[in-house]
Amino acid sequence: MVVQDSVDAPGVPLEPFLHQVGGHLSVMRYDEHTVCKPLISREQRFYESLPLAMKRFTPQYKGIITVHLRKDSHGRLSLVANPLTENRGPFTVSTESAAVAIWQTLQQTAGGGALPLAQWQHPQRAHSLKESPAMALLRSELHLKAQVPSLVEDANGNLMEKGSFNPWGLHCHQAHLSRLCAEYSENKRHRFLLLENVVSQYKHPCILDLKMGTRQHGDDASEEKKARHMRKCAQSTSARLGMRICGMQVYQTDKKHFLCKDKYYGRKLSVEGFRQELYQFLHDGTRFRTELLEPIQHQLQALLSVIRSQSSYRFYSSSLLIIYDGQETPQMPHGSNAIKVDVRMIDFAHTTYKGSWNEHTTYDGPDPGYIFGLENLIQILQGIHEGQ
């Protein structure tokens, strides 16, 4: 794959991806069917050597793109991509999209440019005065503090409710922009991965992001980071269930907006609380979507079979997305609905496997922590199914 990195190439503003429910790296919308995220070499190598059996459960890898920071005449910040020219037609981004309107409103609320660090920093972590603002931002667990007006107006004058988008993606995007502003010049080129937008086919994508496994730190983690992640696992459902909720959005048909939960909420859940949130994820505000249980369980069973067959792989800190449409599908002539659900693995920055580049540790057999989490997830869903 050729990487387009000419400074003179025409730039395309990237949009914040408004359906990012978890993670900490900023995911951007490249086009209708493609998102991009900051490139991490280990994740790139994983996608480039992906086992065939896993491809149906991961986003399609579409290559690499270069990105740089740009400030417009109003002082508003954006990330601009130099599009790949291979097998692509002319590329445009609609400035009338909800993502652009919401992002510009946020920046105008902050007076232009990046929002002040104090608005974004988690209060419990804003204690290190010796660190640079950029490092403090990187180390902190961030919460979205900026207040968006309850209604946001797009370029066409249409009003969009605040609850119609998930704020987490904007939170990650702002943190990323603040770091780039503090550490790099505007001309610095950054490499991003291009990946399939796995929710592009859904009108109101309901997404559950589960951090899988009983261990979250990679083999290269420092002792401090290792201890921190071990505490998070021990104090959450990761230790008991092999998974914890890292983010969620579920469309509420009665209120016409998304109910959103973040990773901080997910860390506090008990085992019973986790089960209740799984039930909540399948409830549209009016009724429980019983018809989703069987297809989700079917896909999870298929994924479990694939994971069991992948010897030496350890998917540390990766997530599992469960996706369905909050907009119910029309009934087919024979009386049944065409139900579409997706189960996808994402985030492979700490994945290790035999033969991966410069590895010092090689594991035998499939990933026991991931399997433990999948088995518990299937069992909990089965319990909910039987209770309906």
UniProtKB/TrEMBL annotation:
Keyword field contains Secreted: no
EC identifiers of the protein: 2.7.-.-
InterPro entries tied to this protein: IPK, IPK_sf
Superkingdom classification of source: Eukaryota
SUPFAM superfamilies on file: SAICAR synthase-like
Biological source species: Moschus moschiferus (Siberian musk deer)
GO cellular component: cytoplasm; nucleus
Protein name stated in the entry: Kinase
NAD found in the keyword field: no
One Pfam family from the record: IPK
Keyword tags: ATP-binding, Kinase, Nucleotide-binding, Transferase
